[in-house]
Amino acid sequence: MRDISFDTIRDAVAELSVQACCRLPEPLLEAMRRSSRQEASPTGQDILKQLLLNADIAAKEDCPVCQDTGLAVVFADIGQEVHITGGLFEDAVNAGIARGYTGGFLRKSSVAEPLFERKNTGDNTPAILHIRLVPGDRIHLRLAPKGAGSENKGRLFMLVPADGIEGVKNAVLEAVRQAGASPCPPMVIGVGIGGNMETACLCAKRACARDVDSRNPDPRYAELEDELLELVNGLGTGPQGLGGTTTAFKVNIEFCATHIASLPVAVNINCNAARHAEIVL
Ligand code: SF4
Question: What are the residue boundaries of the structural domains of the chain, listed by start?
Fold first, then answer.
């Protein structure tokens, strides 16, 4: 067994919070640069250049890329040979979120209860925490802050096998078309196929948090990612919804086993500020 302390996890999560909100991943910046050269609309080109300038200023001045620093979504892969000392893992993650969002002057966007009081928790906790137990003696943490403008446009389609690949394509296009300008395009689109109602959504979220230069390891799904990107960019929504050929930077797909009579498809849309940061402890 390998010991990893509460304090180590808390400090890592605090650092990831600031890093994710203030510095966009390099593959995303590269996609923005490429798109700014390839975008057909002059307005779209201008918007992409402004997004790059904004990202540059945010990184240099350690300020958030966007004012909506989101709910803190944390993916934690915990090795089975890890022994966490000094407190509970979930408490350490939340202590890190509180420290990072407070110390980093990041907006606190979390309300404790959704319907009546909607009182802000004041420190952006609790994190949305997804834990997997994996082999080994390490902890892999990926923090992907998610703003509401894009999250609110997520969709779940409970298709049946007869809907097939065309059904999946139609579902993704319907979600993107209806999202319009709300998720601040160009988007990064996560598609979860299979599982049941909740795992399809989790697959889509994991897909959304992948880098834009990644591909599904199964060549059939990688090809579908490319095809969907082309279809989505053919919708003409364009940067910030003002028209153009860059509606999305990337479509990422994750899939999992499903019922013989089901074909769930979840679409989780991320915005141009498709933020994430990771660390291995
Ligand atoms: S959708 Fe993204 S870029 Fe737009 S306001 Fe929300 S977090 Fe910011």
Answer: 2-20+65-146, 149-274
Per residue of the chain (281 residues), give pLDDT as tens.
999 999 999 999 999 999 999 999 999 999 999 999 999 999 999 999 999 999 999 999 999 999 999 999 999 999 999 999 999 999 999 999 999 999 999 999 999 999 999 999 999 999 999 999 999 999 999 999 999 999 999 999 999 999 999 999 999 999 999 999 999 999 999 999 999 999 999 999 999 999 999 999 999 999 999 999 999 999 999 999 999 999 999 999 999 999 999 999 999 999 999 999 999 99
Question: Using a 6 Å CB cutoff, which residues line ligand 1?
Answer: 66, 68, 147, 149-150, 183-184, 271-273
Q: H-helix or E-strand containing 90? A: helix 89-103
What is the number of the ligand 1 atom nearest to the C-alpha of 184?
4
Query: How far away, in angstroms, is 257 Cα from ligand 1 center?
Result: 32
Q: How far is CA 77 from CA 20, 81, 281, in A?
A: 18, 12, 10
CA distance to 12, 83, 110, 117, 187, per residue, from 225 (Å): 32, 38, 32, 41, 14
Residue nearest to atom 4 of ligand 1 (CA): 184
